[in-house]
């Protein structure tokens, strides 16, 4: 056995033993937190927990139209998957079905993918309920109405065309391609695959700087499809590396490779990952923007860490280079271990699962907060780790 392969194998075995302890414990802890949060919801016919700001212990609730509405249902599905508790299944079903109208209305924006696939998508994966499948397929067709073939991407924010001066696509939009890929192979229109593939290819070409860090927003001429400019929206500056944006890129290209098996995406997923890993602080939890001016006193973004950990577990299984695969896997485990520590778990502080995420720093909102998508991707990653290690 080659030396680095032996090292990688030893490292993986060590991490299997090591993972055993905190994974089940953290899932157990998360189940308890979510049960507390469920009991606090004022009106389950409309209120969906979104965040808890650092100055309070109270949830802020949103309705099904909010971009984060699917993460709560998804969280409940992951915890049902872990606990097999029928009560959680009923809650997951209820909070997922709340989003149904989104699939049949005119598309508001690209977030439809997050909303429907994280909730009903997980519901269908686990239960194979045909009701869910019907809604997911309808949502994929609705999302596809935002595609502009001249540009080769989905219009992320129809409401912001005038503000940005053209067809805008944001890096977050990569995640929503999963809905299109899924629909194309589960009875939906085959063209949805081409749309998703083309979006990923166009974004790969236009959305990244030479060091493979991502712009948040790219604006295109709606009619000619020509790129106009790369900008930020939730990052520190147009040329800074917004942490969650880079995490969306890592997760997005890993998923696109899984769906297409095109080598260019696997190569690209590693490039966008490597710049992120290279610039991380020692504890592997990024500041909200890698170029924030007040590092090391800048707020962190636990959500970016959770998204990245989930993607790294997949990426580590896909790449042929064993030493590099071991590095990705080990990093994912270390990130999850840090998120599972008293530094990041909310515990007695509030009834969310994690602390210290940053939603929209330039807006002054959700800074150093508990946010439902951090919890969702944390659970997703823990469930993956549990599955990989048969825990
Ligand atoms: N998709 C919006 C965000 O990541 O904040």
Give a structural overview.
With 391 residues, the protein is mostly helical. Helices cover 55% and strands 7% of the residues. The chain has 14 helices and eight strands. The strands form three sheets. A three-stranded antiparallel β-sheet has the order 2-1-8. A three-stranded antiparallel β-sheet has the order 5-6-7, with no helix packed on it. Strand 3 and strand 4 (153-154) form a beta hairpin. Helix 1 (3-40) packs parallel to helix 13, helix 5 packs across helix 8 and helix 10 (243-260) packs antiparallel against helix 11. It is globular. The chain starts with a helix and ends with a helix. The model has no long low-confidence stretch (mean pLDDT 96). Glycine (GLY) is lined by residues 172, 234, 244, 359.
Report the span from N to C terminus.
Answer: 27 Å
Q: Which word captures the global form?
A: globular
State the total count of DSSP E strands.
8
- Give the low-pLDDT segments: none
- The protein's oligomeric status is single chain
The whole-number mean of residue pLDDT values reads 96
- Biggest sheet: strand arrangement: 2-1-8
Proportion of residues in extended strands: 5-15%
Ligand inventory: glycine
Order of helices and strands: HEEHHHHHEEHEHHEEHHHHEH
Rg measurement, Å: 20 Å
Number of helices: 14
Largest sheet: 3 strands, antiparallel
Structural class: mainly alpha
Helical fraction: 40-55%
